[in-house]
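Database export, one record per block. Field names are fixed; values are copied verbatim from the stored entry.
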Amino acid sequence: MKTTLHYPQLGEITICSTRRSSRISLAVRPSGEIRLSYPPYISQRRALEFLESKQEWIESVKAKYASRPTPPKLSKADIEQLRIKAKSYLPSRVAEIAQQYGFCYGRVTIRASRSKWGCCTAQNNLSLSLYLMLLPCHLQDYVIVHELCHTVHHNHSAKFHSLVDRCLQGREKEFAKELRLYNIP
């Protein structure tokens, strides 16, 4: 069940009770959208109490996003051009980087993902956002290396970060910090 509530200080909040949730979860998108999810066995009242307890955090995240450069507005034609570029470039770049570091992966899918730059499935298939094409080359490579390292460690453990850092010659934190300056349009 999904509803939208208006909070005077926070604006519109999308509230969703879903069986996929195992706990109360709060997300603030770069667009300013706020989403509160909770499992059916938790009352909406309790979920809203959680939301209210996180008001300062929400405001700080929204302020952080507001200080970032605004991503370009893209038309459908622009997005299709990005998709064509991404499909012709990213799979071959993944193959180059995988070969360089000895990673094995399944297939590469290009999607118009607006929430993540990339992801790796349990079957080691990679999904990359076509919006990666808007990033500088070194950050595209960072995202690809990050996802390829998930083929070895399917988590964000210390071993995972150590592998990413080793592949990036000790620059993982630097690249991760720089990537946070970009929003997916």
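Remark 1: The chain has two domains: 2-67, 76-179.
Remark 2: Residues 76-101 form the longest helix (26 residues).
End of record.
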